[in-house]
Amino acid sequence: MSLHLPRILAMGLLAALAATATTAQTLNMAKALDSPHYDGHRTTWSPTSDVVHMVQDTLVALDWDGKTAVPLLAKSWTVSPDGKLYTFKLRDDVQFCSGKKFTAADVVYSFNRQKDPATRAPYAWRAGKIKELRAPDPYTVEYELVEPYSDMMVQLTMYNNSIHNKESVDSLGKDYGIKGIDGTGPWCWVNWQPRTELLLKRHDAYKWGPMPMYKNPGPVKYERLSIKTVPEDSSRLAAMMSGRFDITSHFPTQFIDQAKKNPMLTVQEASPSFQLMYFGFKADRPLVKDKRVREAMSIAINRAELVKGVMLGQAGPAYTYIHEGALDYNPATKGIVKEDVARANKLLDEAGWAKKGADGIRVNAQGERLAPVVFIPQVTYFPRMTEAIQGYMRKIGVDWKITALESTIMPAKLSGQDFDLWTVSVPYLSAGELMIFYFDSAQIPTPNRMNWKDAATDAAINKGKTALNAADRAAGFMAAQDIVMKEHLWIPVMNPKLYQTTTNKVKNARAHMLFQYTFYKGLDASP
């Protein structure tokens, strides 16, 4: 027996090492939300964005400062004096996961597909008002706009402006983004089990990562990336603490301080990070069409208490739609939302909701209760935050009827009209982005779910959007902020902090701030 023991121990040690090596080659990620699909042209849903950035590339990448576009598929570009013509010079060493060579024809196809009304692309505006795209040679794109677009280069870093392979789109048809995507990104699609797991593999040919953002231009250092959907905070917490997952952007915020103290975990805060959790009003609905009702709900809540009690300090109270550190923030909007319960009650009285029923809820002259329907995502902090705000509402005689929705069906529900308020957390890069995206009447019915149609707002947004200098851009977007905030179309609640949490066996996984998910390309991350 003793003669065979060393051999048995050696075999066991080799097996253990082999298992460890195999495990180390798969990066295991936990997410709170899944997406209805992964066709970046056809959704605003942020759980789509990080996967698209992994599988597909954009012409330019967003640098760590959150405001500078750096070369990616386009190695250089020039802009005409009138701001309408962008000429991109493309890399000639890029290929899709399928092996197809990338050329200017793919760029022309991708942007034409996005602007095609049949695609119903909600983020098409991010690409500007395209007049025509031309490919004078295989590695040059002439990108001509109808009018100047002041946010053009930064917006081209967004996932919806990724480059698609027409062959993949055509072959998969309605299953594109469900059964597969072909891209030039550092990761390639393997398979997807909705609400369970998305599996990606390394793109071995990848060598064109954005430099100097990453030390490693590619390929990535893991063989596979397993992204599992874990909606419950407690389950994600337990899985990360036990080492079952390696990385997440959704470590429960109420336990971030404990994670920072855990020697087995590394917590990074993405900075800068502009995010807003808000409740939006469908402003043409009978219960909330009066601006006084909307203002009353907004000023009845105590944001400092909410952030402390629900978020345990892992957010900042928001009194404006735009963070004061963001480009073109209007400081004059800071005093528009003033918490004041007495004024809230007075406004509701004036708006015709002076009477209260036996349950303390206000009724109008027709006996209708002030009980708006509120749609929320059934994940992370949204239920806790909404229930806390529901308590503030009852104190002023308003009964929020909360409907919690699973993440994959919420986008479809929000495309309808049968609700009064909704909530999401929206990431943005500038004041202009948020104004264009949500408040331009051209965005009705989605994402302008407020159904806000106002000529002055549209004119201010257009002034900022088409500006050829920083002063005119700021003036337009600041004017738009002033209008929409005074209409109280949203209840700004908080600016959540954005964290990336990894186990210590993951090295060099720097947190990015782009669109709520911190794992951008993952080129430097290593076991």
Number of helices: 15
Considering the protein shown, what is the CATH homologous superfamily of the largest domain?
Answer: Periplasmic binding protein-like II
Strand content: 15-25%
- Distance from first to last alpha carbon: 38 Å
Walk me through the structure.
By secondary structure, the chain is of the alpha+beta class. The chain folds into two domains: 29-270 and 498-516, D-Maltodextrin-Binding Protein, domain 2 (3-Layer(aba) Sandwich), CATH 3.40.190; 275-496, Dipeptide-binding Protein, Domain 3 (Dipeptide-binding Protein, domain 3, Roll), CATH 3.10.105. 29% of the residues lie in helices and 20% in strands. The protein has helices at 5-24, 46-55, 104-115, 152-155, 166-172, 233-242, 256-261, 291-299, 303-309, 341-350, 382-395, 410-414, 431-439, 455-465, 470-486, and strands at residues 26-31, 60-62, 69-71, 74-79, 85-90, 130-137, 140-145, 187-193, 197-202, 224-229, 247-248, 265-269, 275-281, 315-317, 355-356, 362-363, 373-377, 401-405, 421-427, 490-496, 499-503. A seven-stranded mixed sheet has the order 8-9-10-1-11-21-12, sandwiched between helices. Strands 14-20-13-19-17-18 form a six-stranded mixed sheet. Helix 13 crosses helix 14 (455-465). The protein is globular and about 70 Å long.
